[in-house]
C-alpha cells in the first residue's frame, strides 16, 4: 500500500526530506504523498521513514491503494532504474 497523510498534518516539514523516493511534497493545505512514487520505503529501509519521524502519527496506509511487498519492490525497481 502507498501511504497517505491525513488532515492531522501540522506541516512540520520533517517527513519530506526523509522520503528516499521524493514522493512527499507540500500540497495546497498539508503535505501529500504521490502514490506512484511511494514504496513504503521498500528497497531503501525496513520501515517507512516518514512514519518514523512524524510527530503526530498522521501517515497511515492508504486503504484505497493496496499493494503487496512484491509490488512495492517492483515499483522501487522502476523508480530507481532511471
Automatic annotation (TrEMBL):
Cellular component annotations (GO), alphabetically ordered: cytoplasm
UniProt superkingdom: Bacteria
Domain 4Fe-4S ferredoxin-type: 1-29, 31-64
Pfam families with a match to the protein in the record: Fer4_7
A single MF term (Gene Ontology): metal ion binding
Keywords: 4Fe-4S, Electron transport, Iron, Iron-sulfur, Metal-binding, Repeat, Transport
Listed name of the protein: Ferredoxin
PROSITE patterns in the cross-refs: 4FE4S_FER_1, 4FE4S_FER_2
Listed SUPFAM superfamilies: 4Fe-4S ferredoxins
InterPro entries hit by this protein: 4Fe4S_Fe-S-bd, 4Fe4S_Fe_S_CS, PSI_iron-sulfur_center, YfhL-like
Transmembrane segments: none
